[in-house]
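Hi everyone,

Forwarding the result from last night's run.
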Amino acid sequence: MKILMVCTGNICRSPTAEGVLRHRLRQAGLDTQVRVDSAGTHDYHIGDPPDPRSIRAARAEGIDISGLRARQLSAKDFEAFDLLLAMDAGHQKIMTRLCPVPLRAKLKLYLDYAPQQPLREMPDPYYGEAEGFNKVLRLCHAATDGLLTSIRQQLHITER
């Protein structure tokens, strides 16, 4: 199974989501069965590492995202990935426009996997302070809980 996290520049929300999911997959023993990547809808930061504030927030929880590098969403991604998760409705709209119609069922909002959360869109912490990055990390954990349940169901794996 292949999952792609998508935000604007691929330096804040989507690499954090990628890092959290990778970390939790490793803990669950599913890291060999699920490939995770992230991309941005825009080319603002291609080749750049995640925002230092994202790196710090993740590192505080033992998650290292410092080696990730930003890339832009490509047409090939719609074929290559089984699930493409937008961080907000703007990203989802761009992805829907670029995605071939038969593949659009693969596009979802990431926070749809956290129905207990009142937010449906991941807030962009870029122009804010450190607390915004911590909030993104908390929301990523909440969404990853639901996503892991879905992954286990799709792979026919019982939770351990």
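The radius of gyration is 14 Å.

Cheers,
N.
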